[in-house]
Specification:
The chain is α/β, with parallel strands linked by helices. The chain is 24% helix and 29% strand. Bound molecules: flavin-adenine dinucleotide and FE2/S2 (inorganic) cluster.
């Protein structure tokens, strides 16, 4: 009993320390990753870079990883993932956010977040990293729109380590006004002999026009010899990926998606009209007729499971499924064995399900 009291005392002390330290430094925390916004840089008409000074809990990141930002809009907590555009070891972290028309978090970031504000973050995550493909050898960094952010981090990282050996940076944008990091890219190309930069501007046929597979192959004749890191809008990724997959080069290509892949349709007659979700920790049972994901169903029932990307990428919503059958809404894979970890945001119940929530 006294051990419990000691623990409770320490916990209370910890919370008091947390409270008073936060009065002195709003990013201070014993257990929560926070970052102060030290600057907001307008890159284009709809893209801004947020320069962040994280607290001591920041574990460091690898070039290409993303961080989940949590904000509260009108009392509703929301999280979105943003790739870090800064290089590991830079003085500050940066995320570079495009305003999505009608988008809740990106609009809030642009309209409301100012220097001095404090953002709540999660630990960096993601496997779209250079060391996964090796930094040596020929490299193609290929991006479209705001997909430039993770590859910019990689390029900055290579530059900082003086390892820009043979890098081709190909970027597609709608127009000249939409080019992010154009000036820095020119400076990097001037500094590193091993870097070549090529832009494709959709609205300007004299600057490449809309990038497609044929244009890419013409611009990168040694594509088969290069490792490629590709990040861009869904349409661009869909149009360009076959360049590798159709010629047996899929192993040379690594991709990152910012938006979810299309959901598989529910085959008629296979999904139960009603599903019961039993939540082991809270003892609650949720009955729902919805056909959405477990995350949507739980939220619809007033639960608040942790989540980040909501598209099966960040693993924030990982949850132990005790019993029942769930289907991955993107791949169609079934999880029917007991005690398997599933991602709530891309899982659809096929039977009643028991979750360790
Ligand atoms: C790994 C990863 C890295 C990422 N990195 C970056 C990055 O570096 N930079 C960047 O800018 N983005 C990045 N993103 C995308 C980012 O996470 C957000 O998805 C993006 O900012 C949009 O979020 P939002 O809240 O503004 O839009 P949301 O509110 O989620 O809306 C998205 C779209 O849905 C529409 N919509 C919203 N609500 C409704 C509704 N009720 N009915 C119909 N339509 C609706 C909106 O109009 C909008 O078009 C990344 C995503 C991932 C997964
Ligand atoms: S919320 Fe990111 S994997 Fe589910």
């Amino acid at each position: 009993m006294s051990a419990v009291r000691t623990l409770a005392h320490r916990f209370a002390q910890g919370r008091q320390v947390d409270f008073w330290m936060r009065e002195l430094d709003p990013t201070w925390s014993l257990d929560t990753l926070r970052a102060r916004v030290v600057d907001v840089i307008a890159e284009t008409h709809d893209v801004s870079t947020f320069v962040l000074a994280p607290n001591a809990l920041w574990p460091g990141h690898r070039a290409g990883q993303f961080v989940s930002v949590e904000i509260e809009v009108d009392g509703v907590r929301m999280e979105r993932c943003y790739s870090l555009s800064s290089a590991p070891g830079d003085e500050h972290l940066t995320i570079t956010v495009k305003r999505v028309p009608g988008g809740r978090v990106s609009s809030w970031m642009h309209d409301r977040v100012r220097r001095g504000d404090v953002l709540r973050l999660r630990k960096p995550a993601g496997e779209f990293v250079l060391d996964a493909v090796g930094a040596t050898g020929k490299l193609l960094l290929l991006s479209g729109g705001s997909g430039v952010t993770p590859v910019m981090s990689m390029l900055r990282d290579l530059s900082r380590r003086n390892a820009v050996n043979d890098v081709l940076f190909v970027h597609a944008a709608r127009s000249r006004q939409d080019l992010v990091f154009e000036q820095e890219m020119a400076e990097l190309a001037a500094r590193h002999e091993g870097l070549r930069v090529k832009y494709f501007l959709e609205n300007d046929p004299t600057r490449g026009g809309r990038l497609d597979s044929a244009k890419l192959l013409a611009a990168v004749p040694d594509l088969a010899d290069r490792r490629t890191m590709l990040c861009g809008p869904a349409g661009m990724m869909g149009a360009l990926s076959p360049t590798w997959t159709d010629s047996g080069l899929a192993h040379r290509l690594m991709t990152e998606r910012f938006a979810s892949a299309p959901r598989l349709a529910v085959p008629s007659g296979t999904a139960p009209a009603k599903v019961r979700l039993a939540l082991v920790k809270s003892g609650r049972t949720v009955e729902t007729e919805q056909q959405g994901t477990l995350l949507e169903q739980l939220e619809g029932a007033g639960e608040r499971p942790e989540n980040g990307c909501r598209m099966g990428i960040c693993n924030t919503c990982l949850c132990r499924k005790r019993t029942g059958v769930v289907e991955d809404i993107v791949t169609g894979a079934l999880s029917s064995a007991p005690d398997e970890d599933i991602r709530l945001c891309v899982s659809r119940a096929r039977t009643d399900v028991e979750l360790a929530l």
